Amino acid sequence: xxxxxxxxxxxxxxxxxxxxxxxxxxxxxxxxxxxxxxxxxxxxxxxxxxxxxxxxxxxxxxxxxxxxxxxxxxxxxxxxxxxxxxxxxxxxxxxxxxxxxxxxxxxxxxxxxxxxxxxxxxxxxxxxxxxxxxxxxxxxxxxxxxxxxxxxxxxxxxxxxxxxxxxxxxxxxxxxxxxxxxxxxxxxxxxxxxxxxxxxxxxxxxxxxxxxxxxxxxxxxxxxxxxxxxxxxxxxxxxxxxxxxxxxxxxxxxxxxxxx
Amino acid sequence: xxxxxxxxxxxxxxxxxxxxxxxxxxxxxxxxxxxxxxxxxxxxxxxxxxxxxxxxxxxxxxxxxxxxxxxxxxxxxxxxxxxxxxxxxxxxxxxxxxxxxxxxxxxxxxxxxxxxxxxxxxxxxxxxxxxxxxxxxxxxxxxxxxxxxxxxxxxxxxxxxxxxxxxxxxxxxxxxxxxxxxxxxxxxxxxxxxxxxxxxxxxxxxxxxxxxxxxxxxxxxxxxxxxxxxxxxxxxxxxxxxxxxxxxxxxxxxxxxxxxxxxxxxxxxxxxxxxxxxxxxxxxxxxxxxxxxxxxxxxxxxxxxxxxxxxxxxxxxxxxxxxxxxxxxxxxxxxxxxx
Lengths: 260, 339
What we know:
The complex is a heterodimer. By secondary structure, chain A is an alpha/beta fold. Chain A contains nine helices and twelve strands. In chain A, the strands form three sheets. Chain A has a six-stranded mixed sheet with strand order 6-7-8-3-9-10, sandwiched between helices. A four-stranded antiparallel sheet of chain A has the order 2-1-4-5. A two-stranded antiparallel ribbon of chain A has the order 11-12. In chain A, strand 7 (159-162), helix 6 and strand 8 (190-195) form a beta-alpha-beta unit. The mean pLDDT of chain A is 93. Chain B is an all-alpha fold. Chain B has two domains: 1-62, no CATH class; 71-333, ABC transporter involved in vitamin B12 uptake, BtuC (Orthogonal Bundle), CATH 1.10.3470. In chain B, 77% of the residues lie in helices and 0% in strands. Chain B has 14 helices and no strands. In chain B, helix 3 runs antiparallel to helix 11 (239-261), helix 4 (102-115) runs antiparallel to helix 7 (181-190) and helix 8 packs antiparallel against helix 11 (239-261). The two termini of chain B are 27 Å apart. The mean pLDDT of chain B is 89. Classes of the chains: A alpha/beta, B mainly alpha. At the A-B interface, helix 2 of A face helix 9 and helix 10 of B.
């Protein structure tokens, strides 16, 4: 399975956000999208998923144009984990995860026992099985993010698109989620995630794409792409990339003026 | 333990309570009938045996109370189901079935019918058609004025159309004959089941069932309508099409019952709330519980309407007297089924 964009332009009518983005992600691969806030990462994702109208260029899934897929077919193959999640009604965590089964259920059906088992397994995979009877609106922001990932897993997708999956998590849960992302990729799921933290690109990504002012400025393996020079371009700050002894991957150390 | 009690008690306890209210409703009123006699009269009709209840009591049960009881059940259940649907779809617990203007549209139709001195059936038909027409117009406006937030545009269009029909109603009231038409108009706008008959109810039943069927069949998908529009679409839902189905179904059934009962407020707003407090927001459980609660609530209120005083109190006044303080209590106590 391959999700690809070709010279994609995205944004809103009369208010373009980005253009000329050519990207692809395959099964089992992790692509990390880096870029400053407001740089168009979410808009790009939503356009690639067909939730926003494309403003030019093309999106294809297995070389078939996006327009040729029904929403239901898409949801069976590609799952989306949105960023800020507002909930209006106090559904239980299990009901929330079961919503991920919808594209695999008949039109008039309600979740079956099998659906329930798949939902519970998704919660178990993320080590939050004990949350299942709690109320989604009453758990912490980090737990909610994990529940949304579980809901996406319940879709049994081949590609997972995650918008800032670590943004609302504490340090421990960030590591947990990054580990899960790696494990999911080993299971053959293709993953596109956006992040505000270049260290995460080193920690989990096979390839990194840098989005600046709506355009793609770098694309390649993390060690080639995430450099002091590219980070300065992207965020406008001085950063040193170092490889600590004993660590699996390099880390980014920002230059912050200490006390004089 | 409490969870188990709640689980068992919840649905069946409510149905039992409803049956009890129905039994009481047949007995009480200006002409009390003993519960045993009520059963004899009703069962003799069903099974065709003789009974020794006085003809006067039989007339009261069959001709006077039966239509009202059935009417209250039907109207209450319908408004509560429509309210639960609208609240879920608009992700807003302050929404009632008339959010898109179905009640005000039906009101305009009925007032116009009374103004033109149409027969009762004509008034009902005009109310039904104008109720549907108003929502159709609102939906059309919202589709043309498409923004990023389809739900918000829809609600705003509904509010504007509601105001517009409201002013047209006011205009007709000023032009109406103050001795004959105006009281009829006022009474209609406050809702009443005093003159409802079984023929009317049989007439609107198909529309109610036609509206209820998709709500029940699509009850799981209804849950996803309370998510963000883009999120629901990412989960494989065709939100545009489903919204048309749900708005259409809820509007159809509301327009149908409003055309015979007049405007009865608060039922569609409050009952879904209580249902959500009892069984949570999952529409599979919410819908049946809201239906039972709505039916029971309106029956109790209608009993009060005909029993409290010598002259009938309009239903809309009583539902507001009961509903408004209850709603304030919900707000103040924080016992809310929403965020």
